[in-house]
User: Fold Major facilitator superfamily domain-containing protein 6 from Auxenochlorella protothecoides.
Amino acid sequence: MEAEARRGPGTPGPELDGSTPGPDPAGPSGIDSPTAPPTARPVRPYTVLHLTVDGSLAGLNAAAASLLTPTRAQALAAGSDAGESVCSFGSEGGSSAAGGEGGVWTVVGRLVLRPDVAVFFWVTLLMGIGNGFIAYLFLFLSDLGAHGTLLGLCLSANCAAEIPVFFFSGKILERVGVLPAFHLSMAAFLLRLTCYALLPLAPTPWLVLGIELLQGATFALGWTAGCVYVKRTAPRHARSTTQSVFSGLYTGIGAGVGALLAGGLYGPMGGAGVFGLGAGMLAVGWGAALCVLWWLRHTRTAHSSAYVRLEAELAPPRGLASP
Assistant:
C-alpha cells in the first residue's frame, strides 16, 4: 500500500514487471525536492468572490426555505381564535377580523403594509445586511496579520456573549421592553461595524475579542426581541408565516445583500472602508426608520393609534421601567 502511494501515475508496480520501485524523486518523506516550485497561495480576488457567492447563495437559500416552509395556518385556519391578536390589526376597534379574510399571505401582506410593522421588517433587513458585512471579519483580520488562534477565539467570544443573553432574555425584555431592546440591538450593530472600521488604528488585532462580545446584543437580543414582536403582532393563524418572513429577512435576504455589497467593494475599498461604509448605511437606514416611528407617535391616524397601543403593550411594566 505504501509502495503504491509512492509510485507516480502510470508507473508499473512490482506485481507487473517483477522489479522493485526505484527511489522516489520526492524523497522518502514525500516532500517535493528543493528544485520544485513552491505552491502558490490563492489570489485574494478568488477568496473575496468565494465568500461573496457562498454567503449570498446561502442567505438566499435560507430565505427561500423559510418562506416556503409549510406553516400551521391550515391547521389553525378553522379555529375559533384564528383572528386573535394582541394588537389591533384592522381598524381602531380593537379586535381583528382579518383571520377569516383571505389566505395567510393576504393577512401577512396587510400586516406588512402597516407602517410600524413595515419599519420593524425594514430594521430587520438592515440587521441582516450588517450580518453580511460581518462575514468578512476573518478576511479583514487576516489582512491585519492576525493568527488563526485569534480567529477561533472570536467564535468562542461570540458564543460566550450569546449564552447569558439568551438565558436571561425574558428578564431583559421585561425590564427594557421589546421594542427598545430591538432598537438597542440595532445600535449595537452600528457600534460593532464602527469598531471594526477603526481596528487598524489599534495597537494589536487581539482587541477584536472585546468587540466580539457585542454578539450578545447584535444577535441574541435582537433575535429574541424580534420573535416576541412577531408573536404579539401577527394574528395567531399567521404567526409562523410572519416568523418565516422575519427569519428570511434577517438570515437570508439581508445577509445575502450585505455579502454581495461587501464582497464587491472589499477589493477597491479594503476591510476598514467596507466596514465604515456598512456602518454608514445602517445609520442612514435606521435614522429613517426612527423618523417614521416618531411621525407615527405624534400623528392622529388609525395606523399611529395602533402603533401607540402596541408600543404600550410591549413596554416594560411601570414598576420595572428604567429611570
